[in-house]
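Researcher: Quick test of sequence recovery. Tokens follow.
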């Protein structure tokens, strides 16, 4: 099984504030964990606004080197269209970046690791786990 880490989980891993997240990540081989390019973008945006942007970028660069980075590709775009259409029709939209991340996970049959289960449970057939809970 391969996991796709959402932005909130990456932040917890980098900060060390949620020891349970690190314990769960340590149980999976690094080769079984991926990060989307969208999560990278969100984290780079946070780094740009950080008190020490260069230090934050450097920490992120080391962190990202550990994992496979997945693009938002054509397969994910097709899944995105289905998810977005369904959520709009059901009146249950989530943010566009969240929808793109969910689409990457579904297109590649990955388990999304997120604390944001409230939004992601709206996406049909999406497998997800919250590593912040026991």
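Model:
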């Amino acid at each position: 099984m391969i996991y796709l880490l959402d932005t909130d989980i990456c932040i917890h891993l980098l900060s060390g504030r949620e020891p349970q997240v690190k314990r769960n990540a340590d149980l999976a081989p690094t080769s079984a964990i991926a990060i989307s390019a969208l999560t990278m973008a969100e984290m780079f945006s946070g780094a740009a606004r950080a008190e020490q942007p260069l230090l934050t970028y450097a920490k992120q660069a080391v962190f990202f080197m550990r994992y496979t980075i997945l693009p938002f590709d054509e397969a994910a775009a097709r899944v995105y269209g289905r998810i977005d259409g369904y959520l709009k029709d059901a009146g249950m939209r989530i943010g566009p970046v969240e929808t793109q991340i969910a689409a990457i996970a579904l297109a590649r049959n990955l388990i999304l690791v997120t604390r944001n289960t409230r939004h992601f449970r709206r996406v049909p057939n999406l497998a997800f786990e919250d590593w912040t809970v026991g």
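The first strand starts at residue 3 and ends at 5.
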